[in-house]
Amino acid sequence: MSKWADLPHFILYEIICRLSFFDDVFIVGAVCKSWQSVVNSLEKPLLPPKCPWLMLAERERGNKERQIRSFFKLSDTKTYNFKLPELVGRKSYGASLGWLLTIGTDLQINLFHPLSKQLVALPPQPTFCCQYNGKVECMYLCKNFVSKCVLSRSPWNSITHEYDRDCIIMTIYGDKKLLAFTRPGYKAWIDIKSPTRCYDDIVMVKYLFVALMMTKS
To answer: Looking at the whole model, is its pTM more than 0.85?
Structure first.
C-alpha cells in the first residue's frame, strides 16, 4: 500500500482497539486527517491514559499565541501544544471523558473536547436559578460561578453524529454551592432541591451521581 492514509478505516479501527493506552490512540490520530477521523469516531477512549494530562493556563501574550493551549504529559514529562481558538478567553473546567466545560465573559457555557474539537452548547449562566445578589461583573462570573462539573456519559453520539440527549451534565455552582443539571438541547439549568447546601464535590459511581459535602465535627 503506497499511502498509510488509504488504510481502510475498519482495519485501522481494529488496530486501535488493540492498543494498550489512550496515549497510543492519540499518536495514531496525529498521523494524518484520515486517521484522526477514525479516532474522533470513538465515543470515548478505550483505555485511560497511562498518567493524567494537565492542561496548562492560557498564555497572556498575542492573540495567536493565546490560541495555543499546552498539555503536560506526566508519563514522559513533555509538553504538547494544540491550537484551540475555541478556548481563548474562556474559563475551562475539567469535566469527564476528556471533555471540558467552558464559560466566557459572554456567559455562554459550552462543552468542548480538545482532541476531537467537538463543541456542545449548553444553557448560559443567567439560566441558573440562584444568582448572586446585586450587580456582579461578567469576568467574576466567568471565573467563579461554576466550581465543579461531571458528565454521566459522552454528550456526543459517534454513531448518529448527533448530540446525546441522554447525557446529564451535573454542576456545583454559585456562592452557596448548589447542585444543578442540564442536558444537550435544554434551555436552562435545573436546580436539584435539597435542604443541604455547600456541596464540595460530585463523583460518578456505578451510573449514579454522588454529591459530597464537608461537615464540621
So the answer is: no
